[in-house]
Amino acid sequence: MEKLREGLWRLNDEADCTAYLVVGHNRAYMIDTGMGLPPLMPQIRSVTGLAVELLLTHAHPDHFAAAGEFDRVWLCEDDREILAGSEPLCRRFGVPLLRSERVRFFRDGEGFDAGGIRLEALQLPGHTPGSCAFGVPEWKELFTGDAIGSGDIVLMTLPGASSVSAYCSSLERFVRRTQIYADAEWRGGHCGQAGTPGTPSYNPPRMQIALDMIGLCKRLLDGRILGEAVEEPNAPGGRALRARWGTAGMVYTAVA
Ligand SMILES: [Zn+2]
User: Fold this and answer.
1) Rounded (10°) CA dihedral 38, 42, 46, 50
2) Domain range 2-252, CATH architecture
């Protein structure tokens, strides 16, 4: 576990999935679990003895593989169907199923009190309908999962992903609600995809990517930018479109 600041740790696994541990005065929250990690609980116990609950940014198996280690697992209500339909992806990734009976569902805007700090759920439908970022206002830290991607591409091809036009509206609302995090580097769900810090190509999630993503959506919608066809194993038929604008990029299947 890599300590990022007092009360915050990061874990990167072999599959380039990133999980975070947020520790308050009386409770800890794990944000996602990754899927290539050794058991998490011994690592968590090496830094805190507090009760720890799991917050999932969305219902994709590469984020919940170790959910079985947690007594309390939280997921946005709007990803309930994605979770129920996740068996094919679980099989492909070799990840145990997460049964919805084991999950507590929260709604957009709900808060999680860790004592001294709290996490707020900020829903950004797109990658999945219930994709959420979790903000810690006291720290100005924002954990974005896959909601705007972790580097220069957001993936909008898996079952349940929004159209470009619906994603555009989600992003506009999200940007309005995340102004207090505007100057921070955001923490994505696959850290390695941002590239190497200190190099010119380093492109971590941050407000500028969200703003450029809105610009990209608008240009795709009015035809100023046309996507190029790419092979995409996650898309129906194995084909999708890819487009870029500024710091943002998207692989998608439906515009309207
Ligand atoms: Zn995902």
Assistant:
1) 130
2) 4-Layer Sandwich (3.60)
